[in-house]
Amino acid sequence: MRDNMNSPLDKPPGRNDAAISRSDESGRGDTGSPTFSRPQETNGDKTQSVSPPTPGAAKNRLPRVLAAIAAAAIAVAAGVYYFSFVLPFESTDDAFVEGHVTAVASQVPGRVAELLVQDNQEVRKGDLLLQIDPRDYEARLAQAQANLTAARSQLEQAKSQFSAVQATAQEARAGLVAVEARASYAKTNLTRLTTIGISGVSQDQIDAAETQVRATSADVLVAGSKISAADAQVTLAQANIATAEANIGEAEAAVRQADLNLSYTKVTAPDAGHVTRRVVEQGNYIQPGQSLLAIVPKNIWVIANYKETQLTHMRPGQPADVEVDAYPQFKLKGHVDSIQNGAGARFSLFPPENATGNYIKVVQRVPVKIILDEIPESGLALGPGMSVVPKVHVR
User: Does the pLDDT of residue 59 top 80, yes or no?
Assistant: First the structure.
């Protein structure tokens, strides 16, 4: 009975012990993990095999799917970032802060008696920066004032002299009238005596009358000469008055110049800002025009040297964000003020001459002026020459 139970007739058709043994050996890999044999289905006389799902193949496909999803997400994020934060803006790192730097110099020579500012000190417009020894200029002012007083005295003398010569001229004219009257009487008397003749008068009387006529005629000439001399004195007195008035004007100008030079001994700040490049020390003897220090005003702007290919959509008035390298935590607001008409290389000390030698096309840079809409904090050391990165919203 036991032999009948183990007989080959009881085994499934199409399978034998050798096939089962090979299936068991092939189902184990090097790692010893079991593999499932492919079951068989009988369809009439034909046997078909059915493949079950393989867990190893599913695990291999999952990383590839996740990688594809991550790549797609990164591509979408990059596209959003480009169209939102790159395409609408034009930026450059070739940009610097600019501002007016006012050089302070003395207008008069002298020795620095007092220095009232230090390096990087903030000053207001009109603050006293240094004091030049004023004693020489005070003496010159006093001398000019004395000369002015003397000129005014000379004018008074000229006016008095003019009055005197005018009186002399009037007296000379009055004398002329009297002399002419005597001359007229002498002529009338001579005519009367001549008419009477020697029958009624003596010859001596006629000769005396003739002498009187000649004498009075000479007196008339002398009186006329006195009038001419008096008139000349009047003219001279008038010229002396004009000269005295001119001397007064010159003396007044000298007083104003001396007073101005005295005021120049006080060197004041031409504008509000910070003291930079101070090279003067107390006790130095300075000359007119010598640079003593510089004032950097608070009014600053940005000069950004954009490539010419970045100017296609850039226009004045477009908003801009400015990041300062020294203060990355701050972002200043501004706008495009103007675009220079010409590349920066064209206005350099040695502009390029492209008509000579070999030519290589190089993208030129054009200065763009950006005005800051916000006043930076007073505690920030923000001045000309500092590096910034502006971003102009062009779209």
Answer: no
* Most confidently predicted of 149-158, 197-206, 258-267: 258-267
Residue of 149, 129, 142, 127 lying closest to 261 (CA atoms): 142
The whole-angstrom separation of Cα 249 and Cα 261 is: 18
CATH label, 89-100+297-393, candidates 2.40.50.140, 2.40.30.170, 3.40.50.2000, 3.40.50.720 = 2.40.30.170
Q: Model confidence at 17, in pLDDT bands (50, 70, 90)? A: very low
Angle of helix 135-196 versus helix 203-264 axis, rounded to 10: 170
Beta carbons of 260 and 140 less than 8 angstroms apart: no
Residue ranges per structural domain of the chain = 89-100+297-393, 102-134+266-293, 135-263
Taking the CA atoms of residue 145, residue 147, residue 148 and residue 151 in that order, the dihedral angle to the nearest 10 degrees is: 170
pLDDT at residue 298, rounded to an integer: 83
CATH for 135-263 is: 1.10.287.620
**Structural fold of domain 102-134+266-293:** OB fold (Dihydrolipoamide Acetyltransferase, E2P) (2.40.50)
Query: Do residues 285 and 113 lie in contact, with contact meaning Cβ atoms separated by under 8 Å?
Result: no
93 C-beta neighbours (distance < 10 Å), count = 12
Q: Which two tokens stand for residue 215?
A: 């004498």
The tokens describing 387, both together, are 């590096």
- Burial of 116 by CB count in 10 Å (0-12 exposed, 13-18 middle, 19+ buried)? middle
Reduced 3-state DSSP string for 37-84? CCCEEEECCEEEECCCCCHHHHHHHHHHHHHHHHHHHHHHHHHHHHHH
pLDDT band at 11 (very low <50, low <70, confident <90, very high): very low
Instruction: Name the β-bridge partners of 301.
Output: 98, 371
Residue 144 has pLDDT above 70, yes or no: yes
**Which token pair is 7?**
């007989």
Q: How far apart are CA 51 and CA 37, in angstroms?
A: 9
Q: How confident is the model at residue 13 (pLDDT cuts 50, 70, 90)?
A: very low
CB 387 within 8 A of CB 84: no
Q: Which amino acid is at 96?
A: F
* pTM, 2 dp: 0.62
